[in-house]
Structure formats: C-alpha cells, structure tokens
C-alpha cells in the first residue's frame, strides 16, 4: 500500500489462530464418514455485492469434471459448514450438483475441526478486490494439518502466503479450467494412495499468543 516508504518503517502483525483450540482434534484419530473424496469449506459464504465470495466458478469446474469423468458424481462430496445462501444452493441444483453439495449450516466448532481434519482438500474463497486480505481460515486449515488448501483468489497477499508456506494450491477465482486441474490433481493423488499433506511446522509463529507478544 505504501511502496514509496522504506520497509523498515513497518512491522506487520498477521492474523492467526488460537492453537489451544486444536489440541483435542490433533490428539484424536479422525477418519472421514464415508469413502468419498471430500472438499470442505469451513466458514460462511454470502451473496453480498460489496463482499462477494461466490462459488459459481467452483461449481462450474466440478460440473465439468463430472461430465468428463461421470464416476466422480458418486465419489465426490463438497461440504460447506456455515452460512450457505439459498441462491448458491439454487445454482448448485440448477447445475445438477444436488447430490454432490452438502450444506451443513452452522455446526459446533469441534465438529468443524473434525471435518477439516478428515477432508481430502480444504477450500478457501477470497473476497473479490481485496488483494491484501488473507482469509482467517487459512491459519485454521494450517493448524489442523493434513489436507492441502485450494485457494480461489485473485493475485495478492493470500496466494503469496500459501506459496511461501507450501500450504497447497492457488487458482484464479475466475479460471474454471485451472480450478478443475487443481481438484483433479489432488483427486488423482488420493486415488493412487499418495494424498498430498501439509506440514504443521511454522504455524506456531501465527499462534495469537505469539502474535500478541510481537
């Protein structure tokens, strides 16, 4: 935001998470409730024009994948924990994804953590037009450890953060083919018994206690 100012004038304190909240789920073996390849989005979506986070390109990518490989329809689950607007659900139904989408609404935090830990792929959708914003769920996904993140975002701080810490994959919010490719890449690896995994090393620097000290 201030490219003409010297970097030493600034200290950046990131967002983060409370690592104590993850102790129970990390000490418990969590397995998926079924054998499907599961993509989890933990957090509310909305259809606000000012704070738009639309899953429409994701839905199109999933629909295309099912058309290319019909067996995916019975082997793919797209789970949304949190607010899920009726308009998004109508769109999913119109695109023939009624059997793939699972909108759970609000669920207890411990259950959300278990969903995240048992996922094959964790989804984050960034707000449009906010290049400096890093979604808070990125830190929670990292703290759970396990599945990689698929971040749908325009270029900016969030995609840079994901690459720097090797937390998963980024795809342009509007690039349906790239989203397809990323999902299929992780799906193939999982089907071959070599699912990609993210290391928790480094998340301690983003514990809110450490950030408060900073």
Account of the 3D structure:
The protein is α/β, with parallel strands linked by helices and 214 residues long. Helix content is 35%, strand content 14%. The chain is built from eight helices and six strands, in the order H-E-H-E-H-E-H-E-H-E-H-E-H-H. A six-stranded parallel β-sheet has the order 3-2-1-4-5-6, sandwiched between helices. Strand 5, helix 6 and strand 6 form a beta-alpha-beta unit. Helix 2 crosses helix 7 (176-191). The model has no long low-confidence stretch (mean pLDDT 91).
- Note the main sheet: 6 strands, parallel
Estimate the helix proportion, in percent.
25-40%
Q: What would you report as the Rg, rounded to the nearest angstrom?
A: 17 Å
Average pLDDT over all residues: 91
Number of helices: 8
Strand segment tally:
6
Q: What is the molecular shape?
A: globular
β-sheet strand percentage: 5-15%
**In whole angstroms, how far apart are the ends?**
22 Å
Structural class: alpha/beta
Biggest sheet strand order reads 3-2-1-4-5-6
